[in-house]
Structures are given as structure tokens and as C-alpha cells.
């Protein structure tokens, strides 16, 4: 046996009581019986001992059993995982984990060894099963999206009662939103498309890309704010010039530092400085504004013409390239051997025709080269024009802000009639600007060079293209396996003879053979079809896991394959109790599939929980590990166990 199977399950009660279920490895095991005997709790017990945060064991089990333990084996290697059962509420945090060779379950719960907390127990089970982790303890200590854990393998082990006939839920727990997220995030790992390191690298890459986008947005916002700083500084200096606090208008080429220094000089000089007003300031700004408007009109016209030229060049490039591709076909005509390209004869007419074709090829080739060389220059010139327009617009806004400031000062001067009062107002605005607004723009933009370098390194490590190819290969393998297995299972139209298409989203589609229509699961119909598809998928995934040595135990627990054929509830059923002969044939066909496919997959163990006792199949009878019928009174937890204290 080269895969992990379940050897035993033990429930412990008061007074040293123990109920043990024994299973054969590498084989089909069957437990049949009546409803209400606790058969389905086998799934809950294994799930609980795989570190589930919840305890879903039934009420009767909780009230009569105090602990449960699972004995896993792989050859001589063993793993025993035990856990106390709470009377109510969520699962207990304490678990017991022991690994070694030739292990045996203890007789009582007090004999369980290796007490530890749930997180440590999970990590130990993951290591034993081969779910690789990183060397970073900080990462291992917490659940990371996309990092596979032991809690991500139950969907591949359990074909539970709420799934086996479902038209919507493909895998165990996929119908629970909080679980579905983790299943979808980790399925590439179990399909062999990624390893744990690349999963975490991809997560880090997403975080760094988000951080880079945030920094770039902040830098862009700071650049916009810096532009507002320049505009506001120039407007205030222009107002200061309008009331004679400075001699000249601010230079449009001045840096923000120079502008702020000039404002600080005005603020420190106060309102009593000499009158340095220049009556021509407004006229100068008006002239500059008119010039900027005229230049912008010219630049916009150039931009429009350039865009038209680029569109025409693009169309011409497409046409010429198309002609070039067509003419390249004549390269197969061997124009250089001086023969007619049509009749392959050696004559002057043929030679002339070949020469004409060769000349046409040369002309088109030259045109392709010319247009390929022209297009980059057109794009560069277009970018230059856009930059000029942006620069002129920015300066126009500054000039308009300066003019607005001058007009405001002049209007307020007329109202007050006092130069000193207007100077005081301007100086007050400058003081307030320097103390508040200007300080917000002093921080330097964050450098992104190192961050970009890290992102590039991670992109090389993650290699999304290779990941997609490996994932597609795994999907194709599962699809091929499932299609082949579906032939061996009873189905009705449209599933009969159809092809199964598996997607890691995860999703199943069925391509029916007549019209090749692609059908979603919900469109297939028939409980028999859904049963067949779920069984084919479960066994196909296990076949892939074995082929790629995925860290998933070779275990399938299937909860009642007879659901489409028997009414719910009741006691153990016999094959002859089925009303239709076709149903009996279908049931026998499913049973044969289980045994034959399990035999084909070395290391695979199947535990079948059933109502049906198929005495017509000797191999089925030999595989029965328990018949929990109403007549026998046998249950998962014996009825005579006392209540827990």
C-alpha cells in the first residue's frame, strides 16, 4: 500500500468502553443497515479528527461517547489522531496525534498519546500526509488564502449524502461559501499545477501589486496637489505684486521651493514695505493668456490632423500587410529558376511574368518597411504634441489664477480705499497658506523602483503561463478519466455516451453525443445521471492524485449509491425489493464499477455506507464489515452505553 488508508475507527465511552470499526486497506468496505444507526457519522468522525473547528457528530454519539480516534496506515507507517467529543457546541481544541510504525489504538481514551492543540495537530497531520509548507513559521502559523491545509482535503475524500445526487454541488462542502473559497483557492495545488511556495509567492505578488497601485495613485494625487501648490503660490505672489509687496510677477519657470521662499519673504516683510506696484502686470498677464490660448488652438488643430494621419497610416499598414501575406504565397512558385510560374515551362512569357511578380513583391516589401518605420515616428510626435498641450494648459491655469487674484485685489482696493488694509489681507492669506496648505505638499513621492523589482522577480517565480498549462493538463486528465468511467456506469439520455469536461473552477459540463451540445450539470437531469457523474468525478480525481503523487489519502467514503432506487429511510434493503428490473441491473452495474475501479487503482480504499445488502454479488457480501439492521440492534454506538456524566 503506497497511499494512506483508514485501518480503524474507535469511539470511547464511560467505564473503558470502546466501539471499534475495522476496515481492509486497498479494498472496498461496506457497512449496510437501517436508517438512524449512525452510519453517516463515520464521515463526521473522520472529518472531526482532521482538525475541523466544528463537531458535527450526532446528538446520540455526543451523549454516549467521550472521544473518537482514527487509525491511518500506509504500509508499516501509522498515524493515530484522537479527539475529545464535546457534549454540545463546537469542537474541542485539544487533540492527540501519534506517528510511528506498527501502531495500535489504545483500549481507553486515557491511553491516547501526543496531546497537543488543534493548530499543531493540523500541522503534524499535514506533514505526515505530505502537504508541504514553507519554512516561514509566521506563514505556517496562520491560514493563508491559497495555502493548502489538511482542512482542504475532505472534498476529495467524502461523497456525502447531500452531494451524491446534487445537480448543483460538485464536491463535499462546496455549497458552503466559507469553504468554497478555500476549495477554489487550493484546488490548483492538489491538481499539481502549483506548489505551496508558488501559492504563497502568488499571494505576495498580489499584495505587492496592490501596494504598487496604491503608491502610484498617491504619487499621482501628490503631483496633482503639487500643481495646485504651484498655481496657488503664483496667484498669491501676483496678488502681492498687485498691492506693491513685490516688484515683479513670479516667473513661470520658478520651482515650488523658489515660490515658497518668495512667499515667506513677503510674509516676513509685513505690510509696511515700499510700494513696488507695476501697473503693467495685468496687461502682461493678459497678453500671455491670449498667447497661450492661441498656441493651444494651434496645437489642438495639429493633434487632430496627426490623429487622422495615424488612422490612415494604420489602415494603409493593414492593407499593405495583407497584400504582403498574399504575395508571399508565390514564394512557393520558385521564381528564380526562369520557368513560367503557371505552366512550369521555360519560355520568355513565363520569365516576364515571373519578373513582374518579383517586382511586385519588392514594391510591397518596401512599402511595408516604410510604413513600419513611419508609425513609431508618428506615435512619438503625437506624444510630444500631447505633452505640449498639457504643459500649455497647466500654464494657462496658472495665468488665469494670477489674473483672478489681481482682479480680486483691485476690487477689494476700490471697496476699502486703503492700500495698507489690502496689503494686510494679502499677507494674511500668505501666512495662512504657508502654515497650512503648503506643509501638506512637502513630502517626497515614494520611490517604486525596489517594489517594481520585487514584483518582476515574483512574476518570474510564479510563471502564470506555466501554471495555466499544468492546470489545463490536469483538467484534461480528469475529463478523460471521467469520460471513460462514465461508460461503465448506468446513465440515461443525455448522459449516455457523453463526454465529461472538468474545470478546476470547479465545474462539470457534459457534451452529449448527438448534437454535441454542452450541458451544465443542472441541465443533465435524472438522479441516476447525477449519481454516475459524481462517482466518475470522485474516482477520476483519486486516479489523478495517485498519478501525480498528490498529498491526498487514497480514501473515498461514499454515502449510499442506492439513493435513486430505494425510498428514503427504513431498514436494510435487498435487491429484489426494487420495483423495476432495470433498477436492479443498474444497481449491480454500480457495484461492479466500485469493485473493479478500486482494484484498478492500487492504494485506493473505498468505504461504502449503504441501505442495500446485495447478496447476489459474492464480492459485495465478502466486503461487508457490518450489518446494522433493526433486527440485530447493532449501531455505531451501542444502545446499552450509559450517558456521559
Strand content: 5-15%
Taking strands numbered 1, 2, ... along the chain, how are they ordered across the largest sheet? Answer: 2-1-4-5-6-7
Distance between the termini: 41 Å
* Count of alpha and pi helical runs: 16
Tell me the major beta sheet.
6 strands, antiparallel
Q: What would you report as the Rg, rounded to the nearest angstrom?
A: 40 Å
Count of strand segments: 16
Mean of residue pLDDT values: 83
Overall, the morphology is elongated
Helix content: 40-55%
Describe the overall structure:
By secondary structure, the protein is α/β, with parallel strands linked by helices. Among the domains are: 1-130 and 555-572 and 601-645, Rossmann fold; 219-449, no CATH class. Helices cover 51% and strands 13% of the residues. It has helices at 41-48, 59-64, 118-129, 137-140, 177-190, 196-242, 256-269, 281-328, 348-416, 419-437, 449-462, 464-486, 521-524, 527-548, 581-600, 618-623, and strands spanning 5-12, 18-22, 28-33, 67-74, 77-84, 94-101, 115-117, 158-159, 499-503, 507-511, 518-520, 555-559, 573-574, 605-610, 612-613, 624-628. Strands 2-1-4-5-6-7 form a six-stranded antiparallel β-sheet, covered by helices on one side. Strand 10 and strand 11 (518-520) form a beta hairpin. Helix 6 packs antiparallel against helix 11 (449-462) and helix 8 (281-328) runs antiparallel to helix 9. The protein is elongated. The two termini are 41 Å apart. The model is unreliable at 134-144 (pLDDT under 50).
In short:
The protein has helices at 41-48, 59-64, 118-129, 137-140, 177-190, 196-242, 256-269, 281-328, 348-416, 419-437, 449-462, 464-486, 521-524, 527-548, 581-600, 618-623, and strands at 5-12, 18-22, 28-33, 67-74, 77-84, 94-101, 115-117, 158-159, 499-503, 507-511, 518-520, 555-559, 573-574, 605-610, 612-613, 624-628. The chain has 645 residues and is an alpha/beta fold.
Amino acid at each position: 500500500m503506497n497511499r494512506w488508508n483508514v485501518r480503524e475507527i474507535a469511539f470511547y465511552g464511560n467505564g473503558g468502553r470502546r466501539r471499534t470499526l475495522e476496515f481492509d486497506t486497498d479494498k472496498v468496505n461496506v457497512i449496510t443497515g437501517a436508517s438512524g444507526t449512525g452510519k453517516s457519522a463515520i464521515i463526521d468522525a473522520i472529518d472531526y479528527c482532521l482538525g475541523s473547528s466544528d463537531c458535527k457528530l450526532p446528538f446520540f454519539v455526543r451523549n454516549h461517547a467521550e472521544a473518537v480516534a482514527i487509525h491511518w496506515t500506509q504500509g508499516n507507517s501509522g498515524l493515530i489522531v484522537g479527539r475529545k467529543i464535546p457534549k454540545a457546541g463546537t469542537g474541542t481544541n485539544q487533540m492527540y496525534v501519534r506517528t510511528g510504525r506498527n501502531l495500535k489504538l489504545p483500549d481507553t481514551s486515557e491511553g491516547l498519546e501526543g496531546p497537543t492543540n488543534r493548530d499543531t495537530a493540523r500541522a503534524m497531520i499535514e506533514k505526515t500526509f505530505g502537504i508541504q509548507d514553507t519554512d516561514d513559521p509566521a506563514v505556517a502559523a496562520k491560514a493563508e488564502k491559497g495555502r493548502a491545509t489538511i482542512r482542504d482535503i475532505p472534498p476529495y475524500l467524502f461523497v456525502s449524502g447531500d452531494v451524491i445526487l446534487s445537480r448543483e454541488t460538485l464536491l463535499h462542502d462546496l455549497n458552503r461559501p466559507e469553504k468554497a473559497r478555500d476549495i477554489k483557492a487550493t484546488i490548483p495545488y492538489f491538481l499539481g499545477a502549483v506548489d505551496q511556495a508558488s501559492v504563497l509567492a502568488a499571494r505576495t505578488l498580489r499584495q505587492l501589486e496592490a501596494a504598487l497601485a496604491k503608491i502610484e495613485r498617491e504619487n499621482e494625487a501628490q503631483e496633482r496637489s503639487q500643481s495646485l501648490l504651484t498655481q496657488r503660490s503664483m496667484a498669491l505672489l501676483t496678488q502681492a505684486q498687485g498691492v506693491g509687496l513685490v516688484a515683479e510677477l513670479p516667473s513661470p519657470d520658478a520651482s515650488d521651493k523658489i515660490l515658497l521662499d518668495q512667499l515667506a519673504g513677503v510674509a516676513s516683510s509685513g505690510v509696511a514695505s515700499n510700494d513696488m506696484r507695476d501697473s503693467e502686470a495685468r496687461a502682461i498677464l493678459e497678453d500671455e493668456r491670449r498667447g497661450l490660448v492661441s498656441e493651444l488652438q494651434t496645437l489642438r488643430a495639429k493633434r487632430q490632423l496627426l490623429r487622422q494621419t495615424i488612422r490612415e497610416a494604420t489602415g494603409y499598414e493593414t492593407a499593405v500587410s495583407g497584400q504582403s501575406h498574399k504575395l508571399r504565397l508565390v514564394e512557393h512558385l520558385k521564381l528564380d529558376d526562369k520557368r513560367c510560374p503557371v505552366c512550369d515551362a521555360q519560355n520568355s512569357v513565363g520569365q516576364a511574368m515571373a519578373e513582374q511578380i518579383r517586382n511586385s513583391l519588392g514594391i510591397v516589401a518596401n512599402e511595408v518597411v516604410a510604413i513600419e518605420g513611419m508609425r513609431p515616428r508618428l506615435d512619438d510626435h503625437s506624444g510630444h504634441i500631447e505633452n505640449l498641450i498639457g504643459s500649455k494648459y497647466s500654464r494657462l491655469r496658472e495665468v488665469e489664477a494670477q489674473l483672478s487674484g489681481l482682479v480680486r485685489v483691485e476690487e477689494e482696493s476700490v471697496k476699502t480705499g486703503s492700500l495698507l488694509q489690502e496689503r494686510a489681507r494679502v499677507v494674511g492669506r500668505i501666512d495662512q497658506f504657508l502654515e497650512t496648505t503648503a506643509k501638506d505638499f512637502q513630502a517626497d513621492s515614494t520611490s517604486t523602483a525596489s517594489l517594481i523589482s520585487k514584483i518582476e522577480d515574483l512574476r518570474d517565480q510564479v510563471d502564470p503561463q506555466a501554471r495555466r498549462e499544468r492546470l489545463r493538463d490536469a483538467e484534461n486528465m480528469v475529463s478523460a478519466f471521467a469520460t471513460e468511467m462514465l461508460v461503465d456506469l448506468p446513465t440515461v439520455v443525455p448522459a449516455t455516451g457523453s463526454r465529461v469536461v472538468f474545470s478546476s473552477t470547479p465545474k462539470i459540463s457534459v457534451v452529449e453525443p448527438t448534437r454535441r451540445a454542452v450541458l451544465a450539470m443542472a441541465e443533465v437531469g435524472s438522479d441516476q445521471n447525477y449519481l454516475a457523474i459524481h462517482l466518475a468525478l470522485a474516482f477520476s480525481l483519486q486516479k489523478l492524485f495517485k498519478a501525480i503523487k498528490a498529498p491526498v489519502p487514497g480514501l473515498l467514503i461514499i454515502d449510499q449509491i442506492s439513493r435513486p432506487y430505494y425510498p428514503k429511510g427504513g431498514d436494510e434493503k435487498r435487491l429484489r425489493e426494487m420495483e423495476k428490473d432495470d433498477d436492479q441491473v443498474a444497481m449491480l452495474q454500480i457495484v461492479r464499477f466500485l469493485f473493479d475501479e478500486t482494484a484498478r487503482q492500487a492504494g485506493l480504499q473505498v468505504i461504502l455506507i449503504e441501505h442495500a445488502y446485495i447478496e447476489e454479488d459474492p464480492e459485495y457480501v465478502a466486503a461487508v464489515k457490518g450489518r446494522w439492521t433493526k433486527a440485530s440492534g447493532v449501531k455505531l454506538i451501542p444502545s446499552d452505553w450509559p450517558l456521559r456524566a
